[in-house]
Amino acid sequence: MVPGLIYENPLEYIYTLLLDILVCTVKSFYFLLETIFLTLLPDRLRNKKDVTGQVVLITGGGGGVGRHIALNFAKLNAKIVIWDVNREAINATCDALKTEGYECASYIVDISDREKVYEAAKKVKEEIGKVDILVNNAGIVTCRPFLDLPDKAIESTYAVNILSHYWTAKAFLPDMIADKRGHIVTVSSVTGLMGTYACTDYSATKFATVGFHESLYSELKYHGHEYIGMTLVCPYYINTGMFSGVKPRLFPMLEAKYVADQLVESTLKNEVNCTLPGSVRFLLPLKCLLPAKTCWEMMLRIMKGPQSMSMYRGRGKAKSG
C-alpha cells in the first residue's frame, strides 16, 4: 500500500472501500428517487418549515432583495430583524413592513467591522432573542477591470461579501447548536460559480461564499448537527441597480421579488441549493467538461459576458444589494 492513506492495511483498504462504495451507491439511488419525487410533488403537499415566532435576521435588509425577504418572512409570522449600514434604506424596509401591518427591529450595523457585528449580535439577543434564521444577504460591487480597481475597493468587497459571513455565523451559530434548531442562508451568486468580466473582486468573494458555505455544511453534517439547515442561493444578475446599465444577452435580469420568493421557499423546504434561474444549472457543468477555449468562445460570442458587463454605468460607486 502507498503510505499516508487513511487505511494502510491492504485488506482493510479494499474491504472498507468496497463497502463504502456499495453504501454510497444505494443511498445515492434513494436520494435521486427522493429528489425526483419532491420535484414532481406540488408545493401545497410539501412539508415546510414553520417559522412562526422565530427570529429571522437579514443582513443588507435595506436593499431590494432584503426588503422582500423581510416581508415574506413577516407574512409567515416570523420576528424580523434588519441589519444595514444605510439608515434611509432601513427606514424604507420598516415602512414597507408597517404598510402591510408588520413590525420589525432594525439596527445600523457595519458588517465589515467584526467587533460591531459582535456588539450588534449581543444587542439583538438581549432585545429580541436568539436568532433562528440567519440570512447573509448583504453585498457590494465596484465592477471595474482589475487594473482599475482601487485597493480600498477590493478590501471593502472582501470585508462585506465574505468576511462578514464568518462574524455573523460565529455570533449566532453557537446558540443554534445549543437549541438544536436553526438555519443559515448564504446569498452568493452565479458569478461565484463562474468567473465574470470586471468582477475580479466581486466574483472572487462570491466563490469564497460558496466555499465557506459548503465547508460549514460539511462540518455541521459530520458533527451530527443535522437540525441546522443550510441553504446556498446563487442568483443570476438581479435588477436592483447593483449592476446598473448591464444588459445580458441570454437571460433577462431577475426581479428582486422573484429572488426573495425563491429564497424563502427554499429555506422553508430545507433545500441545500437554490440556483436562479434553474436553467443555469445545466450550463455550469460545461465549464468542467468542455475545453477552456470552447468555454471562452461561449462566454464571448454566445453569452456576450464581457460586452454586457462593459455596459455597467455605476463605475466608481460601490452599491449594496
TrEMBL record:
<dbReference type="GO" id="GO:0016616">
    <property type="term" value="F:oxidoreductase activity, acting on the CH-OH group of donors, NAD or NADP as acceptor"/>
</dbReference>
<dbReference type="GO" id="GO:0005811">
    <property type="term" value="C:lipid droplet"/>
</dbReference>
<dbReference type="Pfam" id="PF00106">
    <property type="entry name" value="adh_short"/>
</dbReference>
<comment type="similarity">
    <text>Belongs to the short-chain dehydrogenases/reductases (SDR) family.</text>
</comment>
<protein>
    <submittedName>
        <fullName>Uncharacterized protein</fullName>
    </submittedName>
</protein>
<dbReference type="InterPro" id="IPR002347">
    <property type="entry name" value="SDR_fam"/>
</dbReference>
<dbReference type="InterPro" id="IPR036291">
    <property type="entry name" value="NAD(P)-bd_dom_sf"/>
</dbReference>
